[in-house]
Each structure stands twice: as structure tokens, then as C-alpha cells.
Amino acid sequence: MIDLKTLEDFKAGKISEEQLLNMLKAAPFEDLGYANIDYHRKLRQGENEIIYGQGKTAEQIVGIVDNMTAHGLENILITRLSKQVFDEIAGRINAVYYESARIAVANPKETKKVGKVAIVSGGTSDLPVCEEAAVTLETLGNAVTRVYDVGVSGLHRLLAHLDEITDANVVIAVAGMEGALASVLGGLVSCPVIGVPTSVGYGANFEGLSALLAMLNSCASGVTVVNIDNGFGAGYFASMINKAVCKNK
Amino acid sequence: MIDLKTLEDFKAGKISEEQLLNMLKAAPFEDLGYANIDYHRKLRQGENEIIYGQGKTAEQIVGIVDNMTAHGLENILITRLSKQVFDEIAGRINAVYYESARIAVANPKETKKVGKVAIVSGGTSDLPVCEEAAVTLETLGNAVTRVYDVGVSGLHRLLAHLDEITDANVVIAVAGMEGALASVLGGLVSCPVIGVPTSVGYGANFEGLSALLAMLNSCASGVTVVNIDNGFGAGYFASMINKAVCKNK
Amino acid sequence: MIDLKTLEDFKAGKISEEQLLNMLKAAPFEDLGYANIDYHRKLRQGENEIIYGQGKTAEQIVGIVDNMTAHGLENILITRLSKQVFDEIAGRINAVYYESARIAVANPKETKKVGKVAIVSGGTSDLPVCEEAAVTLETLGNAVTRVYDVGVSGLHRLLAHLDEITDANVVIAVAGMEGALASVLGGLVSCPVIGVPTSVGYGANFEGLSALLAMLNSCASGVTVVNIDNGFGAGYFASMINKAVCKNK
Amino acid sequence: MIDLKTLEDFKAGKISEEQLLNMLKAAPFEDLGYANIDYHRKLRQGENEIIYGQGKTAEQIVGIVDNMTAHGLENILITRLSKQVFDEIAGRINAVYYESARIAVANPKETKKVGKVAIVSGGTSDLPVCEEAAVTLETLGNAVTRVYDVGVSGLHRLLAHLDEITDANVVIAVAGMEGALASVLGGLVSCPVIGVPTSVGYGANFEGLSALLAMLNSCASGVTVVNIDNGFGAGYFASMINKAVCKNK
Amino acid sequence: MIDLKTLEDFKAGKISEEQLLNMLKAAPFEDLGYANIDYHRKLRQGENEIIYGQGKTAEQIVGIVDNMTAHGLENILITRLSKQVFDEIAGRINAVYYESARIAVANPKETKKVGKVAIVSGGTSDLPVCEEAAVTLETLGNAVTRVYDVGVSGLHRLLAHLDEITDANVVIAVAGMEGALASVLGGLVSCPVIGVPTSVGYGANFEGLSALLAMLNSCASGVTVVNIDNGFGAGYFASMINKAVCKNK
Amino acid sequence: MIDLKTLEDFKAGKISEEQLLNMLKAAPFEDLGYANIDYHRKLRQGENEIIYGQGKTAEQIVGIVDNMTAHGLENILITRLSKQVFDEIAGRINAVYYESARIAVANPKETKKVGKVAIVSGGTSDLPVCEEAAVTLETLGNAVTRVYDVGVSGLHRLLAHLDEITDANVVIAVAGMEGALASVLGGLVSCPVIGVPTSVGYGANFEGLSALLAMLNSCASGVTVVNIDNGFGAGYFASMINKAVCKNK
Amino acid sequence: MIDLKTLEDFKAGKISEEQLLNMLKAAPFEDLGYANIDYHRKLRQGENEIIYGQGKTAEQIVGIVDNMTAHGLENILITRLSKQVFDEIAGRINAVYYESARIAVANPKETKKVGKVAIVSGGTSDLPVCEEAAVTLETLGNAVTRVYDVGVSGLHRLLAHLDEITDANVVIAVAGMEGALASVLGGLVSCPVIGVPTSVGYGANFEGLSALLAMLNSCASGVTVVNIDNGFGAGYFASMINKAVCKNK
Amino acid sequence: MIDLKTLEDFKAGKISEEQLLNMLKAAPFEDLGYANIDYHRKLRQGENEIIYGQGKTAEQIVGIVDNMTAHGLENILITRLSKQVFDEIAGRINAVYYESARIAVANPKETKKVGKVAIVSGGTSDLPVCEEAAVTLETLGNAVTRVYDVGVSGLHRLLAHLDEITDANVVIAVAGMEGALASVLGGLVSCPVIGVPTSVGYGANFEGLSALLAMLNSCASGVTVVNIDNGFGAGYFASMINKAVCKNK
Questions:
Q1: Distance from B74 to chain D by nearest Cα, in Å?
Q2: Are A and H close enough to touch, i.e. 3+ CB pairs under 8 angstroms?
Q3: Are strands A95-98 and G170-175 parallel, antiparallel or unpaired?
Q4: Strand ranges (DSSP E) for chain D?
Q5: Taking the model in full, what pTM does it have?
Q6: pLDDT at residue F110, as a whole number
Q7: Which of D80, E197, F67, H166 has its C-alpha lying 20 to 30 A from A115's C-alpha?
Q8: Does A55 contact F155 at a Cβ distance shorter than 8 Å?
Q9: Which residues of chain A neighbour B203 with C-beta distances below 8 Å?
Q10: In 3D, which of G94, G92, G231, G237 has the Cα closest to residue G175?
Q11: ipTM of the assembly?
């Protein structure tokens, strides 16, 4: 693959012309017709390709997992996977299913958990999004602290859990409705806060728009935002930071 | 005017048929051609008609004020009045101008201030909207406490002023950006909170939409909302509550 | 809990340092893992925490009610509770269910009803939202007057009921479609009007947006707004005003 | 022109083949390069083509008027014409300018006014839109009644003018903010009501969107809607109805 | 009822004070608890109150119809009535059901059809909306011409039917997708055109928004618009015009 | 039909007056009541009329196909046809069904495939939209190359397939989520790129809005866009270009 | 540059490993700090890089043009260039300015014009967008036919110009307001139609949204769309098609 | 201040009850009437409070800076500060102004720059937003690499700069229009990518909405987003990560 560090190494003389060209020929992905599995991602980003389960048939998912298994990969995340589709594939691949997170992990293997990421939620209804982030983080090897149902309408609940939150390397703030949790946490902690707006609520929340806009307009510095209900995206991003911080410790 | 208590009084025999018909004939408003001044409002609602200054010429405003003055009215609120238009009318009517509030009060007269309304704002830039509410409230005879620039990104600033806020009869929460202040106050105080979303911010605040949606979706109970930047509306509504509470004391 | 009147009392010498610190240690909420029940709300706001039923499992709701029951609480509101979930929990807790309001009240106990709140609706289809407000108000101890299906397309129907409306302490205006009822009532009565836009209608009502925007832009003063279909929120807010007005009588 | 009654006449033998083909050759418009003036409209619809002034240079407008003048046309409406552009063309064409309506009428000629159209507005700030409708109607030969500043926040003002409104053939309801006037009028009168939402207001009126959606969702039957601030469109449509009704009297 | 012509008549001495007051006492509507039936509408507008079926139970509809029947009313329109609810009420009231129009007519009675209204549609899928307009018009006593599936992508189909359209008193243009039909018809005919945007289409039609905005921005004069899919509204409005034009013939 | 080349031919003397009038009389469409089939399209545009299946009953579709079959037409495309409706019509017409494309082709006949159109998709979930384009193109006689699941998150997968893409006459870029594929392809290839935004994704993709806006704002030149999920539209447009380019080879 | 045909050539043995690597080293762009000029585009796409003038200082534009001039490039398009900025740079580079198109062409050189592209507009106010397309097309070597102000409100004007339009290789339909022109043209001609929605109009056109949505939802096949007011984009895309069609003639 | 680590320390016996209470009394902020300066932020988050310049008067800014200067603070960031307001305050405080970034730094002091943050932009017009991020980062003590104008329409420009980007600890992707840069970078690098959508573009970019939605829907993992044009927010967040990673090296 030439579009990355290879260019530098080549310029620095670390790899030869012949090596460069062999790389060009051996494209690091596999074409299943309906899917092009990116095996280069692990080299490029340090993590396996993630399988986005929504909109894929059981057949397609099994095909992709089998191919990845043949490449010796473990802890393969399959996100947005309904219980129904998991039941169809359960006997055909080696996988555990986290129902509230709607995630399956194929070829599961225990990993060491490093650092600390705190997942804080506004209400009980945000739980599926929280767990999507949590399972993603844990599968990728991060230690997670869960602090749920501490929305801003009863600040003392949040303040009482502050000591579990303030020593994290990253905080994920999950909230629907007015999404104020991200701003409040942004003002309280000294580490990066990742806001996850959820579609919890009704009426003028417009399927999560209210929380999304609120988090994007956080008056507190140190807050960025992912897509509505995107627990996986927040977990993946938090993992990047947490592991980078831990690597140098 | 028949569309009010008159019907009850008539049913109860308190007013005669003749009286009822005379009321029908004497419509309690005055038609200036470009404006129909509602002199019945004072009877119906206990307050003068308010002059909405925006989009009216100096000539029209002077005409309306003169007519109301001839009816003996005092403390006439003229809202959304630019400094420029006020300067045009300054010599022709008896009025004081509150520049940051963009309000003029014609035929001003000192009134007794009752009860307590707290106006709390997220940032310094929300000041014009706060002052619109404050001047409205004071002109209508309410005592006002101002607590400005205590947004949720530094909660300790808000907590430190809590004792000035918690004994109010009504709280007005003025905030732009993510508008979280309304929810946080809604969770802390025991009186009604009126949220005023402001257009302060940029980008995905979409001229106040972010704060508006956030306040409408407050996870705290006891919060209602007025239009973006509508300090007057919040002040008028708060005055209704504050005076009703005080009347019975 | 330190973030409230406690600070004042401490400053005033009414509570000692030792008392203050004991308060800090005894956080007034209970952590069920999936929920943090806020028992401080009753002290802070005078009402129990409300259980938002939507998105919660029967198991979770029973757990929360059991815990609140153990604390001796009565008249616990469970809002947005579907008939189906209520049927699952009906035998396990002591509760009555108001189907059109989608509200259950656990540990119901007769309360004295004070003051008067008028609930006025535009059409028959707005009934569920009206009843959500009505049951909330009555459970919290307020007297309620219902005036339904008097939308502005036949003004004489509204005018004929005016005497039932004009002596209320608060009016709740519930309307979908163009939501004009809030403005019309705002111009007719002398007490605060709380507008509840409903999602009743089709096409360019955009799930309640038309009524929401209309009510936010009311040309009549004295109108505030809650979220689309949020009968509970309007009822809770109206209860705050009605009880404050009555307390001093 | 073949795309109209001509076909019927041809089928009915009223016009010959030769006549039909001659019509095809003589296209009833004139191409000025920057504009194709539709001289067929008068035959087709009974009115001159209207010149939409916005976005046109003084030079272009003079060119079009000169060409139409050469065809002997009178009472040519030029809408959305700024005072500034009118001043540039004032000496070069024979025209009167209605400043509040932003309309010029070229080659003005007194016409008989038939029937009755009532223009009713919510506030003083809606006046320019009202006048655009009024000047259009009067130029096209309709009698107009103006009832301004009778918004729903003071219903008695509207009720007091009802007798001026109820005998019209068409009512035009002009209102910004929550646009409730259209629904209220729709419920009171027995003739068609044309709603004109205006951009008057601020914040969540979103440049007229609130009034537009409200009028489209009118709970009263007998209401249709034109574009925001489109006084001309309402006037033109009302003229069609008023004249059709009068023609048969 | 005092808010109408009564005032004029009273001023003109046509009705006495006693008569006026008796009118006040006898409010011309009936309160069923869940509904306030407006019996004054027939006097005020010349048509029965319409029953909006959506969101009403079979029980409620039967109750309203029974009450109206007891008042001797015929040809009662029940709109937006699903087949399923009609089947529940079919045996209990005297009614015919128009399935494609989703309209039932209770106490049906043949009426004379006057004038002519043309209903023109863009595509086959717009048929239910067209029929809602058509059944409304016919029940109210208007003659209707149907010209369906003549959208602008094949202009010759529209031009071929022009002779059926051009002699109507009103044209109703029903179209989804880009809604161009209203503009094109507006340019071709000399009578008023009422545009009915439909939700037919997908993607960026946003449930009818594309056709709605297109029709509101028609470059042709003489076009007004009703709510998305509001065939009834267009039919009712067209009936008003058609009957007014015919009355004077 | 007169609104096309006929006019030129008539002017050039190629057709006589008599011929022109006969054309006028024989309108080239057939009126089935619920549908007006456009048989002139083949003459005008070189392709049959397409049957848009959505919202049509099985009965209507069979009726249209039978009529077109009677005119001797082959390879009739029926788009947006659900499996369920196809099963209803399968025994009554001669047709093949492409399930993933939701397209049936009635009276199928092998055609020669010319040129080359490349269909490139971002993910596996975009497959139905891709296949709608592909089946459309192949039925209309174009050769198609499919390159699926090569989204921009793994650019090397796209670059590896570039040689299959760069020699096409047209490229169709199908992508949901952020829709970046259209811009990236627009920068890489020298032929026209047609972007098809899909509704694939969740949350702030707002049913395809994110991809739609992204493609409309492509920073690369040479990109146009069709409606969300409109694989047919892209295929039809691409066929026009591909065949025009091939015709002259 | 490796990301294009080079890969094929390398696979086919047409270029050697050494050549491939030399290509990698010589990146075909020039970095001015504030801009990276893409000299590879001409090789890749056959046209110069276009300079997007908006948001660039006179200094930056001159710098880019000087650099491109030094590379021997001619007919460099600078789009969205205000008259004011052009005046600043006029003396420093060799350029002609097309004011209505807001385009400058640096190092202008007469080119042969091939094929035919028809630009059709709805109104006179769309002229700047039309000219942006026209100047782009002519500078890139295409013959252009202009048919302006033939909107659908007077169809005979459009039909009369049909013979100038029907023999084009591509049609560009430029329209604001309801944007119906694209659909109507899509139904009349047999070549691809590119719709350019313009921001011409007011109110509910929402700065071009109405025309944009209308064109995206065209009921006629064979229509694609570019960004609002994007005359350049339509011209560039049309040039691609027109030249591809002509190349093979 | 009690809402932070203090609680832990108190629980751990590290601070006494007396110390805790003294903290409560000494609120770490200063109330200027119009502003409450948060001096606790430095303790809580390690950075000074930032002054948001927009909407503040010169007088207010000087007051705040003077107060902060009296507290001995250096490198005070004043963001969104227009040149005009800076000129008013330039002589009264000690500050440098970065015009393209619209940032002033009061009491500037050279700081050591650690780690590496790469700022990558799509076009030259995004420069002000990029510089806002860059000046923020450098003032907070981070080393910055600028790679501007490498949008996805010419991928080779981006690929050629990859070696400057891939060894950063964080990448900031700044782009308007379709915002594809964030997704493409997210797929290429192994560190966190912060997307900054800009309002650069026109028409259907809707002031930055297109890029915002695109970035929120990135198909590449490892991307979060800040508000439109919020270069400061991205810089501040990147600084948090970069410094956390460097601290442990």
C-alpha cells in the first residue's frame, strides 16, 4: 500500500523499489463481490475493520467473518446487529452477543484493559447507546467506568459521582432531550469530552436534533460530537485517545 | 365588550340588557387608520397595550402614544425600538429610553415594585435580551434580581449565586448556544422557570434554534419557553405570575 | 445537599459545619445501576421525582417504584406508559392507570384539590394530551376544568365557555394544526396561558412543528410554550403557578 | 396560439385549417433578448402580463414598458419595484408609484371598480404586503375594503369590523407571527379566504415560516395560501374570483 | 350568534334587542363532552360542519352523526375515515363510503350539481387525493371533471385534455414530486387554480415538501395552495368559488 | 404531435398542413382512466414510457402492461415494484423480476449492450440502489461495470479498482452517510460523474439529506446529482450519455 | 502520479518500474503556501484547474494566475469573481471580464466551438447564472444557444423556441421559484437535461430550496441537478458530455 | 470549590472540614457585573478562561483583561475579535493580534511547543478557520503543522503531503462544501481526526450545514466534529489530546 508511511520509508531508503512495487501488487483487501474487506486497516490504524451489521444479510456477515477468521483475526466487532440476525448466524460463527449494545464480537479473546474511559449518561433510556460505546471500548482493550442516569435535572447525582469521572483520560457524555450533560461535564473535567446526542425524547427533539445542536454549541470548551446514537463512534474515538495516552506512560 | 366576564354578569343578572347593548355599541378601541389601539386590554388583562416598535415609523409611534396619552395612560412600553427611531421621537413625547433593552417608556411614572423575579443569563452577550425582560418587569411593577454570565461551563459561578435565585417567585433563564441553563435551573429551584433562548452563537446555533430546541426538550420539569430573543415576552409572563402570587400575600 | 438553601442557612448560622458535612456524605438519591432515583427533589421542589415510562422495561419501572415505596412515597406519577407495559406491572405494584392519559399513579392516595386550572383544546383528537395534563394536575392536587373541542374555526363555541375559563389561575391551551388557540386565549384572559402544541394534523404540520412555531410567535402577550404533545410538562408547570397563587390566599 | 380554445374551435369547425396555421406562425410574444413579453396572456387570461421588477435593471424595465406601450397596453403593473429604480425610470415612462406597495403602474388609466374584496391585517407592520394586494386589486378593477391592525390578540377589534368584512366576495387575511388571523376569519365568513403569511416577527418565525405553516394547517375550511409576503399573488387571485362572481350579477 | 351579520341587522333595526339577547342565550352548538358540534356553521357558511375522522373512535363518530341526524342534517361529510373504522360504524348509521377518497357521507341525498370544477392530476398515485376533492365537491353540489395522470413530463397528454379544463370555473391541480402541474395550468387557464401538493414521491420530496414549496413559488399568477394531501380543503374552497359564480348566473 | 420537431419540419416544408392537422387529431397516448400512457415518448426520447410501480395496484399495472404489449412494446421497465405486488401479477404478464433492484421487465428481450457505465458504491448496504441503476442501464442496452463497497474510509480499495472505472463513458457514484465518494471520483476520472445519495445511515443523515447536500456541494467539477435512492434516474441519465457517445463512434 | 491509468500501464508493461517511481517523486502540483495548484488535472481530466474566486484576495489570485501562466496555460477560468476584485487585478494579469457572469478568463485565446449546448432560463432574473454557464462552456470550446425568459407560465414562448433547443447535445435548464422548467424540458427533449436551481424568488423559495427540491423530484426522466446558482458546474458538466459526443463524430 | 477533586480529598482525609468550608466561602471567580470571570478554570482544566470577543464591547474586554492581568495571567486568548474592536483596545492592553485568525493574545509570552498537531484544509478560503485553530494551539503550547488547500478533488495533493500528517498526535480537518476531507483523512491516519465544517460555499451548503452533516456521518471511524467554523474549539480539544499524549512521553 503506497498511500501511507511507505512513501516516507521509501524516501528514507528504508524500503527498496522492489519492495514498494510488490506492495502495489498485493492489495491488502479481499473482494467478496458484495464486500471489499479492508485488511490494511490493521496496519494503517492498528484496529481490525469493523463490520457495520445494519443492512447486511446473515449470509453476508458470515461470509465476511469467515474470511476474516481465515486471516487469523480475533475480537471482530459487528455493530448494529439485531438479535434476530444474530440468532441466524449464532451457530455458524464463534461469537458472543451483547444485546443491549446490539454488538456481536466474533472470535472473542480476553484482552488487557488499559487506562480509563468514563461513560456518563443523562437517563436510563440512553443505556443502549452507552453500552454500544462500552462494549466497543472494552473489546478494543480499554477500561471503562459507567455512570448512568445522572442528567442535569438533578445535579447532585452527577456531583456525587464526580470522583469516578475526573480521573478518566476521556469522558463520553451520552444524552438525549436537551443534551446539556456534555456542556456541564465539559465545564467540570480537565480531559476531552465526547458528546453523543441520542434520539431519546419526543416532539421537538426531532429524532435527536435538539441534543445534537446543543452539543455542537457547547459553551464549554473541550467538547466534540459524534452522530446521533453513535455509541460505537464515540467508543472508537475515545479508545484512540485513551490508548495513545497510556502508550507513553 | 361582550366576549368576557360580561356574559357571566349578564347571566347573573348583574348587568341589564340595556347595559349589555350599550357595551356592544362602544367598542373599546380607537382606529387610527394604520393602528387599532386596544383600550380594552387594561380592563381585560390589567395592563396597557404594548407598542411593538419594530416596523413602525416614528410618525406612527408618536400618533399612538399621543392617543394613549389623551386617554390618561402612563408607563407605556414601546419595545424593539431602535436608538435611531427613538431619537426622532424623543422631543415629541415624554419618554425615557433604555438603550441596552431597546425599550422606551412613555409617560414614565415611578411604581411600587413587588415580589421578586430573578433573571439569570449564560453569558455577557445575552445582556440585551435580559435587560428587555428586566425593564419590562420593572415598568410593570416587579422587583428584579439580575444574575448575569453564569453559564454552565463554570457551574460554581451559578452555585455561588444560588441564594439570590432560590427565593424568587419566578426565574427567567436567558441563554444562547446550547441553552443548558434552563434545564440546570429547572432542576435546582422550586419555582417556575421561563426559558428565553437567544440567538447568541454562530454556525449550528442557526440563529437561536439550538437553544430553542434544547429548552423545549428540558429534562427538568417546570420549564416553559418563549420565542428566541423574546425578553419582553418572558418578562410579561413572569410579571403575571409574580403579581398573582403577591396579590394574595 | 449543599447546592441549595443549605448555603444560605449555613451563612446565617442556622446549620452547623458538622451538619453541612453530614449532608454532603448522605447523598439523597439511590443508585439502582440503571437508575439514580432523586429523593432530594421532594425537598428541593416539593414534588416526587416523576418516572418517565417511555424506553423503560417493566422490570426497571417495578424496581424504581418498589424503591420509592420503601421510602414511603405516594402518588408516584409514571408518564408515557403504554397499556402493554402497565399490564405487565399491574399485579406487582399498587397503581391505577389512566389510559387516555397514558399515566399510571402508584400508591394512589386522595389529595385535596386547590385553585383552578383550565385545560382548553382545539379538537377531539387532542384529548390524550389534554388528559396527560389533567391527570398530572389532579394527582399533584389541583382542581381542573376541562373545555374540549372549541377550536378557533367556530369562535362562538369558545366564547360560550369563556366564563368557565376566565376565573382560572392558569390556562393550558392544547392545539394542533395551526395552534391559533393559544394566541386567541392569550388575548382573552388575564392569567398566564401555557401553550401545548400537538402533533394532530398531517402534511405541512410536520409532526407538530406548525403549532409549535405558531405558539412561540403568539402575537398575544402572556403565552409560553412547552414541547409538542407535552401535556405532562404543561400540567406540572401550571401546578407550580396554581399552588403558589393558592398558598398565599 | 394552438394550446387553448383554438383546438375546440377547430374541432367544432369554427376556425379553418388555414386560420389555425396562421396562428401557429404568429407567435403572440415579443423577444427582447433579455425578456420574452407574453402578449398572449391577455387573450388567455384576460389580464396583461405583469412585470416582476425585482432583479431587473431600469434599462430592462423601460424596454419592456416601451414595447408594451407600443402594443397599446394600459395599467401595466410593475411589482417589487424599489423606490430607487423607480426614480431612475420615472422620467422615461408614464407611471405612478405606490411607495408602500412597491408597485408602479405604467400608462395608468382610471377603471371601474366592481364587487368587493376585504383586506384584513394582523398588525401595522403588515401594511406593505396589504397595500401590494390592494393596489393590484384596484388596478385590475376591483373595489377594496381595508381593515388593518385587527390581530387575534384583541378579538373585539376584529369583531367590531365584521360588518365591513362579511359582505365581501373574497377576504384576504394578511398576518405574520402566528398567522392565526386566517383561521379565525375562515371560521367567521362565508366567502373564500386567501391567507398571506408575512415575514413580520423575529426569531422562531423563521422569516415567515411560522405564519405560512399555520395558514396551511388552518383548522377552518375555506382557506388557501400564497407565498410569504406575496400580496400581489393574493390580490391577483382575489381579482379572478371577485370578477367572476360579479360578471354574472 | 352575535359575531356575524346579526350586528349589522341590529344596527339596521332589523332585529330587536330582545331577539339579539335570545340569540346570545341559545348557543348554536351541542356539547357531547368529547366534541362541540357547530350547528351555527350552516347559518354562517352555508355548509354543515365536516367531521374530521382521523383520531376519532367509532363510538365518537356515531355519537356525532346521531346528534346531527337528530337535527335533520343530510349529506354529512366524514373525511379521513379508514375502511376499518367505517366497517365498525357501517351498521349503525346510514352512510355510503368512498374508499379511494377515504370519505363517508352520512344520510346521503342526491343533490343538484352546478357549474364545473376540473380536477387535474400529475400521476396515477395522486388518485386518493383527487377523489377526496371530487367526493367533497360532488357532495356539496358541484359538477366535477376528472383529468388524471397528465403530468408535465408528457405535455401533449395535458394539452389534449385542455378543452375539458378551460371552461371550468375553478381548476384543482393535484401533483406530488416537483409539483410543476400547478404552474403550468396557472399559465394556461383563465380561472383560479388551487394547487394540492401530494406526498407522492420519495427521498428529497420530504413527504410532500418539494411539491408544496414549488406550488407556493409558482411563477404563474392565479395559483393558491392548500396543505399537503389536503384534497378536502381544495374541494371545499373550490366549491365556495364555483357556487358563488353560479349563483349569479 | 405539434410541440416538437414537427414545427421545424412544417416550416421546412417537409410535412404538409394536412399531415400536421392529422397529427393533432391522433394524440399519441392512451387513456385508461387511471393512467394516460405516453406512446409518444418513444418517438420523442427514444425510450418507452417507464412504469413507476409504487402506489399502483396490481390491477393497474397489468392494465398498463397489457395496453403497451398490444402496441408491440418490449423491455418495459416497471420500477419500485415490491416483491409482493410482482407475485400478484407474475402469472398474468410475461416478466422477469430483479429482486434486489425492485424492478420487473415485461416482455423481456435480449438487447445488445454498448459502451460502458461504471457503478461505484460506498458500502454493501447501497446495493439495492446500485442494482436499480444497473438493471435500468442493461435493459436500455448499456454495458455495466459494478464496483461495490469501495467507500472513502479505505481509499486503497477504490484506487485498486480504478482501472475498471477510468475507461467508462459515465460513472455513477452511489453512497450514503457523508457521500464523499462522488467528490473523490469527480477528482479522479475524466468523464461525467452522476451522484446518487442514498438513505443508508442513521441519525444526522436525516434519511439521505447528508449525502444529498454533500454531493450537491462537491468541490470537484463534473458531478451532478439525482434524488435520494434514485438509482433508476441515474441509470436513465447515464444511458442517455453513454448511447450518445457510442452512436458517433 | 500513480492513482490513475499509470497502474494499468504498469501492469501492462507499458511503463517500467523506474518510470513509475519517478512519477511518484514529481508531484504534479505547485505549493504556493495558501494554494496547491493542481497541474495534474489537465492530464487527468483534460481541462485546467479552475480558480474559485470567492474568498480569495486579489494577491492570491494574481499569484495563482502568474504561476499557471509560467506553466504556459491559457483560457484560465476565474469564477465567482466580483467586479471589485477584478478591478484590483486587471492591470496585473492579461484577462477579460464577463461582468454578468462574474467570470474572468486569464490569458484568453480564441478556441474552436464544437457541438451545441442550449441554455434555457425561466426568467430575466436568472441571467447571471445562465451567463456563468455560457461563458464557462464557450471558454471550454463549446457552441452555446441562449433561450432566456421562457418560463412555464407562458408555455407558448417555450414551444416557439423548441426548434432551437431540440437539436442540442445537452440542455441546461436554469430556473428559480418553482423550477418547473427542468421537468417540462425533460419531457420534451431527447438529450440530457441539467437543472440549475436559482435563488431567484422570495419567501418560501428559501434561497433556492424550492427550485432545488423541485428539480431533484422531476417526474420527467433524464434530469440531473447541480447546486443552487451553480451555473459554472452545469456548464462544466455539459461541456464534458458535449465534447464526448462530438469527439466521436 | 467543592464540586471537583476536593470531595475525593476530603473523603480521603487529605483536607480537613475547616479547609473544605473555607473553600466554599472563597468562590474562585470575580464578578464585574457584566461578567463573572472564572479563575477556577485554570485549577480545574489547566487553562485560563478564554474571552469570547463577539458581542462584547471594547470597554468590557479591557475590563476583563485588566482583571485577569491583575491576577497575573498570561497568554490570554481573546477569540472572534474583529480588527475594529482590537484597534479600540490596542493601546490600553498589552496584546498581539492575529488578523486572519481574528484572535488577540493579551500579555503574550513565549511558550514551549510540544508534540504535533496537523491542520489540513480543503481550500484556500478555509484559511481563517484554520488559523483560528492554529493560533489557539500555539498559544496553548502545541507544535502545529499546516497543510492547506489539499481538498479531495485532487487527491494526489493530499497524498503528497501525507508524510507531514501521519506522524501527528491529532489531525484537524477543516473543510466546507461537501466536507469529504474528514472522512478521507479518517481512513488514512491512525490518530484522532477532529472535523471542522466551514461555511465556505454557497447555495445548498446552507451556511455550512452540508459539511457539518457530512462530517457527522463520516463512514471512517475515528472522527468527531465541532461547530461550523469553530477553529478555536477544534484547537482547544486537540491541545487537550496532544498535551495528554506528550505528558507521558
A1: 20
A2: yes
A3: unpaired
A4: 29-31, 36-38, 51-52, 76-79, 95-98, 103-106, 114-121, 142-147, 170-175, 193-197, 223-225
A5: 0.91
A6: 93
A7: H166
A8: no
A9: 216-217
A10: G231
A11: 0.88
Q: Read off the C-alpha cell for H63.
A: 475590563
Q: Please tell me if residue C152 touches chain D, with a CB cutoff of 8 Å.
A: yes
Q: What are phi and psi of C34, to 5 degrees?
A: -85, -10
- Whose grid coordinates read 392536587? C141
Dihedral (Cα; F12, F14, F17, F18), 10-degree rounding: -170
E192 and D237 within 8 Å at the Cβ level: the answer is yes
The amino acid occupying position C228 is I
| C218-234 residue pLDDT tens | 988 999 999 999 999 99
Whether the CB-CB separation of E126 and E173 falls below 8 Å is answered with: no
- Residue to test with chain F: of D15, D21, D22, most F Cβ within 10 A: D21
Mean pLDDT per block of 10 residues along chain A (249 residues) reads: 51 60 50 73 72 90 93 93 96 96 96 96 94 98 95 81 89 95 92 97 94 94 96 97 87
For an interface test with B, give the residue of C29, C190, C248 to mutate (most B CBs within 10 A).
C190
Spatial distance between the Cα atoms of B210 and B230, rounded to a whole number of angstroms: 15
Task: Please state, as a whole number, how many other Cβ atoms lie within 10 Å of the Cβ of residue G57.
Answer: 14
Residue D234 pLDDT grade (very low, low, confident, very high; cuts 50, 70, 90): very high
Listed residue (F246, H155, F44) closest to G28, CA to CA: H155
Contact (CB, 8 A) for H23 and H2 = yes
Please report the beta strands in C134-243, taking only residues with DSSP state E, as ranges in sequence order: 142-147, 170-175, 193-197, 223-225
Around Cβ B19, how many Cβ atoms within 10 Å?
A: 13
Contact present, D79 and D103 (Cβ < 8 Å): yes
Report which of E215, D239, F95 is spatially closest to residue G204, judged by C-alpha positions: E215
Close Cβ partners of A145 (under 8 Å, ≥ 6 residues apart): A116, A117, A118, A119, A164, A165, A168
Residues of chain H found within 8 Å of residue G33, distances taken between Cβ atoms: 148
**Closest of G91, G90, G107 to residue G99, by C-alpha:** G90
Alpha-carbon span F99 to F109, nearest angstrom? 18
Q: Residue B113 carries which side chain, given as an amino acid letter?
A: K
pLDDT digits (tens, 9 = 90+) for F142-185: 999 999 998 888 777 887 788 889 899 999 999 999 999 999 99
Alpha-helix residue ranges (DSSP H) falling in G115-189: 127-139, 155-160, 162-165, 180-188
d(CA H52, CA A220): 11
Contacts for G74 with CB less than 8 Å, ≥ 6 apart: G107, G108, G109
Radius of gyration of chain E from its Cα atoms, rounded to whole angstroms: 20
Distance, in angstroms, between G188 CA and closest chain F CA? Answer: 7
Residues E36 and A120: their CA atoms lie apart, in Å, by 50
Q: Do chains H and G touch (3 or more CB pairs under 8 A)?
A: yes
pLDDT higher than threshold 60 for residue H209 = yes
What contacts C217, CB < 8 A, 6 or more positions away? B227, D176, D177, D178, D201, D203, D204, D205, D210, D211
Partner residue facing H152 (CB), from F184, F209, F213: F184
DSSP state of E27: -
Residue D76, C-alpha cell as written in the block: 401595466
Question: Any chain A CB within 8 A of the CB of B155?
Answer: yes
Q: What is the pLDDT of residues A107-122, one digit of tens each?
A: 999 999 999 999 999 9
